[in-house]
Predict the 3D structure of the following.
Amino acid sequence: MEYIFEKATINDLENIYKLYEERAEWFKKNNIDQWDSYFTYHPKSDFINAIKDKRFYIIKQESEIIASFELSSDSNCWNDSITSAYYLYKVVTKVNHKNLGKLIFDKCREIAIKDNKKFLRLNCIESNVKLNEIYESYNFKFVRNIKSNKYVFSLRQLEL
């Protein structure tokens, strides 16, 4: 299968946002405590700003957007403005599309290495054991937990 990886444009916004709505509904149907208030903390304006700043990426299969994420040099959880790192946020894949994580992580790693970054970092809800195991399987090592709002987040990083 051929995948097209590109930076998102404002024209992609509605389709991107739909991915998040579908995934949030899937979490709810499957009793996974994830994203129950996602849109409260990530309004459309966050997506618009990331797209305008050319930090937001999409993966297409043919003409359909099947995954998206933000890759930023700014940290909203790490409180670290010194370390040369990219921070991976807002990762989502289309429901019923499997094994896109490796594609996303490989592409982010490639971009980070090209830009001379030392780390690729991300965070996830500490209580989501399966997601933490997935990140661990891609060599994102646990660094520490932090509390933010009503959640505890696990901070993870991949050394490049």
